[in-house]
Amino acid sequence: MMKTVQAKPLTKEEYLPYGNVVQSNTEAKTIANQGTAQRFNWIGELVNKRDNAKANLCVFRCKPRELPFDVKLLEKHPLSTQMFIPMNAKSRYLVVVSLGGDQPDLSTLKVFVASSVQGITYYPGIWHHPMIALDAETDFTCLVWEDGSEGDTVVVPVKDPIRCVVPSQSSL
């Protein structure tokens, strides 16, 4: 029988072992732009552990995935934070993360449902699934440090796929 994991709404507190939630409802705000804007500071740390890697600002255009969704692989960026910010999101997306070292520790695998106003970071070395758009095609701005070597990304198959159980939009 296939293992299942219930997706939960993305919150700053529950996601903290894996990275940061990027959104504007934080306490650290200042007034900016001659009083016409609020600035939310120090939302998360961006890390690059390689002198020769450069910041790669790119865009991922993700087609929506059908549910149920099965996790068949995970990846990590051992020496860099990776950040995703939805640009044109009309809907939600899934964030699948796991702790671990050389291999993911699947007992720590979590599935979160992010809203269209939440971005995320993955700490260096956090196992995660590539972006999973739900309901509509979504563009994500991505920032990651890369140098073109094998050290940029490590990808491993998940021997026994894990099913993500995702609540309907109305039940979140």
Oligomeric form of this entry?
single chain
Q: Sheet bearing the most strands, described?
A: 5 strands, mixed
Number of strands: 15
Low-confidence stretches: none
Proportion in β-strands: over 45%
What do these coordinates show?
There is one protein chain. The chain is built from 1 helix and 15 strands, in the order ββαβββββββββββββ. With 172 residues, the protein is mainly β. Strands 2, 9, 10, 12 and 13 form a 5-stranded mixed sheet that branches. Strands 3-11-8-14-6 form a 5-stranded antiparallel sheet, with no helix packed on it. The longest helix is centred in the first third of the chain and has 4 residues, at 12-15. The model has no long low-confidence stretch (mean pLDDT 93).
Task: Draw up the topology in text.
Elements: E1 3-6, E2 8-9, H1 12-15, E3 21-22, E4 29-32, E5 37-40, E6 54-62, E7 69-76, E8 82-86, E9 93-98, E10 110-114, E11 119-122, E12 127-128, E13 132-133, E14 138-146, E15 154-165
Q: What are the main properties of this structure?
A:
five-stranded antiparallel beta sheet
Give a summary of the structure in a few sentences.
The chain contains one helix and 15 strands; from the N terminus they run ββαβββββββββββββ.
